[in-house]
Design brief:
Blueprint lengths: L2 E4 L4 E4 L8 E6 L14 H15 L3 E6 L6 H10 L3 H18 L15 H13 L3 E4 L2 E4 L35 E6 L14 E3 L1 H13 L3 E7 L3 H16 L4 E7 L2 E3 L21 H5 L12 H7 L2 H9 L7 E3 L1 H25 L12 H9 L4 H18 L4 H21 L2 H4 L2 H21 L12 H22 L3 H13 L2 E6 L3 E6 L1
Parallel strand pairs: 3-4, 3-9, 9-10, 11-12
Antiparallel strand pairs: 1-2, 5-6, 6-7, 7-8, 13-14
The chain binds zinc ion (ZN).
The site of zinc ion (ZN) has 3 residues, from loops.
């Protein structure tokens, strides 16, 4: 049974689909594509890609949508500043965003609808809100009248007085300060679309309501987004959709914690001090340290020159999604160094079995996984099966990926211990190797849920990496000769100094020495 923490009820609820079938609709508010994406934009896609993987693993058929906001004040300003069309800017930044999430192995997104392609459906949706008395036109704009929806504030648990809205230049046209724009009249020279209220463009909130309605129906299962979108964006989506259809909009609201600049060295900028551990779900305490372009967050594609996508994905998933993620390069490096233990095991597995870990077959769903697990015997495999059950229990508990990662490290210890105790690298005993393989298949089944260790990371090819290999072989040879000559001081110095450079040497049975980067 999967439990989801629902922001709407502020409690964990058992996951059940709206229809009672296995069909699930899931929507994540996507980027406004006016600047290259930074790591803060990558948190939601990684989390909800993992949520989808887990639901699919549990037999659900999930349609997962991330919208692309390609019309907005920020896009208009940036395209003017760069002297290109808004459409050209949006196309460039959408490509940047999609390339970045692909690098993080986010590959379960069903559709990326673009706002400008759905304006024709936004107009009748807004008209219906006007007809039903929930919205009113004013000098070419259209506003939603929040006073007409008594449930306004039910998601963010705020009162109308606490939601005073943006005010600003539009304040005079509004009935209440908290009213928000569904349609904005175009200023001269701005991109615009024809409408019954004059040329203009849609407000940001209406996009999500209309695309959800169109692609996922009146009521759907999961709506996700960062905690900072809960108010006003998601509150407004609820008001628009529920007033338009008269039905509940979303069954489970899932809000992820924000990525924060760490107080450690290497922080992204802005904040110097960090208060006591923020409460999960506490927006006020997270907003202060939130990573943003203005705080100097680097373009994500530059981060990919320093870290593998797999490293960054593992880093994001090692914190529970509702908690804030502490960002620092040191932290990502630490996580990457921890992951080396897995990569070393995969090489070890290949030496014992002659097979690649990455080509092992594995269960793609829970039923097949349970069947395979229940067929296994012996203490070692029973231990692995129990560890698998703890992994799944973590995921069942509101997608606790951090708990599952902790358990995967425990499983890794068991796998290595089995190789060590049975001296499998030397004996390569076929029956025991088969048991190791069964354990590794379970490991692979679980890793695939997290979207990690699915494919071997290709080493960069080219002159440099060949040269590095040749130099490493030279150093390994020199160390071996030093040991033969009983010059242990030199042999140790080579090992230690390589270690300081981030390279680990491992002596294998048969006099083979392997090296890997930490
Ligand atoms: Zn949205």
């Amino acid at each position: 049974m999967i439990q989801i923490y629902n922001t709407l009820s502020k409690s964990k609820e058992e996951f059940k689909t709206v229809s009672g079938t296995n069909k699930v609709g899931m929507y994540l508010c996507g980027p406004t594509v006016y600047k290259p994406s930074h790591i803060g934009h990558m948190v939601g896609p990684v989390i909800f890609d993992t949520v989808k993987r887990y639901l699919v693993y549990n037999g659900y058929d999930v349609r997962f949508i991330i919208n692309i906001t390609d019309v907005d004040d920020k896009l208009i300003n940036e395209s003017n500043a760069r002297g290109i069309s808004m459409a050209a800017l949006a196309a460039e930044m959408t490509e940047d965003y999609q390339a970045n999430i692909r690098a993080l192995n986010v590959k379960t997104v069903s559709d990326f609808p673009r706002a400008t392609e759905h304006i024709k459906n936004m107009i009748p949706f807004i008209q219906r809100l006007i007809d039903r008395g929930y919205a009113y036109p004013a000098e070419g704009d259209v506003y939603f009248d929040v006073a007409k929806f008594p449930e306004y504030g039910k998601l963010s648990h705020r009162t109308l007085e606490q939601m005073q809205g943006e005010g600003g230049s539009m304040a005079s046209q509004k009935r209440n300060a908290a009213d928000f724009a569904l349609w904005k009249a175009a200023k001269p020279g701005e991109p615009s679309w024809e409408s019954p209220w004059g040329p203009g463009r849609p407000g940001w909130h209406i996009e999500c309501s209309v695309m959800c309605h169109e692609m996922l129906g009146d009521t759907f299962e999961i709506h996700g987004g960062g905690l900072d979108l809960m108010f006003p964006h998601h509150e407004n989506e609820i008001a628009q959709s529920e007033c338009c259809t008269g039905k509940p909009y979303v069954k489970y609201w899932m809000h992820n914690g924000l990525m924060q600049a760490s107080s450690e060295i290497g922080k992204v900028g802005g904040r110097k001090t960090r208060a006591a551990e923020p409460e999960e779900g506490d927006l006020a305490s997270q907003e202060g340290g939130k990573i943003s372009k203005s705080k100097g967050a680097a373009a994500f594609k530059d981060m990919l020159k320093e870290f593998t996508g797999e490293n960054i994905r593992f880093f994001v998933l090692s914190t529970h999604y509702r908690r804030p993620i502490d960002y620092s390069k040191e932290r990502i490096q630490q996580i990457g160094a921890g992951m080396e233990a897995f990569y070393r095991f995969f090489k070890r597995f290949q030496r014992v079995t002659g097979e690649s870990f990455y080509s092992l077959p594995y269960a793609k769903n829970r039923v097949d996984g349970d069947n395979f697990a229940s067929s296994l015997q012996g203490d070692f495999l029973k231990g692995i099966v129990e560890s698998r059950a703890r992994c799944l229990a973590s995921m069942d508990d509101d997608f606790n990926t951090g708990g599952m990662i902790g358990e995967l490290f425990e499983m890794l210890k068991r796998l290595n211990k089995f190789v060590d105790e049975n001296k499998l690298e030397e004996t390569k005993d076929a029956a025991l190797a088969k048991q190791l393989e069964a354990g590794a298949r379970i490991f692979r089944e679980l890793a695939a849920i997290l979207g990690v260790f699915e494919e071997e990371i290709k080493q960069e090819e080219g002159e440099d990496s060949n040269l590095v290999n040749d130099l490493m072989n030279l150093l390994i040879e020199l160390r071996k000769n030093a040991k033969k000559a009983k010059d242990f001081a030199t042999a140790d110095a080579i090992r230690n100094q390589l270690n300081a450079l981030g390279i680990t040497l491992e002596d294998r049975p048969g006099g083979v020495t392997e090296w890997s980067r930490n």
